[in-house]
Amino acid sequence: MNKQLQGTGVALVTPFDNSGKVDYAALGNLVENIILNCVDYLVVLGTTGESVTLNKQEKKQVVSHVIAVNKGRLPVVLGLGGNNTYELIEQISETDFNGISAILSVSPYYNKPTQEGIYQHYKLISEKSPVPIILYNVPGRTSSNLLPETTIRLASDFKNIIAIKEASGNMEQVMRILNHKPKDFMVISGDDSLTLPMIACGAQGVISVVANAYPKEFSDMVRHSLKGDFETARINHYKLLEIIDNLFVEGNPAGIKACLKIREITGDNLRLPLVNVGDNTFNKLKLLNQKLS
To answer: What is the pLDDT of residues 121-144, one digit of tens each?
Structure first.
């Protein structure tokens, strides 16, 4: 499983139609386009997928649709996390894991647990999950940092905790994990702009936002980086860097959905409380896309 989840994973957006319903045709087209452009795995119902705005039935249908379109071609990782540990365990028990290779589970948010609380949260998930687990540290959203010591403790204590998606933006923290982790434990970039330097330090890939719209360009960069060909990798890194920076100025996934509309892959509808990017950001992304083309 570790080898299957190296390289470029894509945190899929969830397209909506003009009435606000999930656009399953657009979702299928998105998945097909991403697969044909040589990424390594798919991540469904993550933050970028606006999972918190989907009801239980919609979540099941989105996952089923992605699995059906994928037809077993790539591993599928399911976003399954929360800040109510026992409710999360109940969700795990009710989930059909057919077609699911692993779960991506965000560190508990809002409650601001201690490091011991975070450890015990993941310990229980580890004991109940039938598939491997990728930890997800994103302090900018959770208001709580999963410290390197806790990450390494979890990686050492539980064999089915196989990786961490590190989106702290702190390269020193990333390097501390890389320096002390168990051999087979993977560090995965959660920041598109830091993926190349993280791989240079020893990370094994990325779960990407920008690869929704630019799957070939970004996965090529990751592939060359993993081979140690950083001279070639830097070309695509710098081609995409300004686009990546502008994806997040008005929040995610508003920026990437604007790019998907510009590239005529899906529409850019979101669900409240998220709204579309403003005209200035949209026009800047459109100009950057033209330069890339």
So the answer is: 999 999 999 999 999 999 999 999
Runs of H (alpha helix) within the chain: 24-36, 56-70, 85-94, 115-128, 139-142, 148-157, 171-180, 195-201, 215-226, 230-247, 254-262, 279-292
Say whether 136 is catalytic: yes
For domain 7-230, give the fold. TIM Barrel (3.20.20)
Sequence spans of domains, the chain: 7-230
Q: Which of 24, 136, 257, 261 is catalytic?
A: 136
Report angle CA 184, 190, 193 to the nearest 5 degrees. Answer: 120
Amino acid at the residue 96: D
Pick the catalytic residue: 24, 41, 59, 165? 165
Overall pTM > 0.85: yes
pLDDT digits over 76-93, tens only?
999 999 999 999 999 999
Active site residue 109: no
162 three-state secondary structure: strand
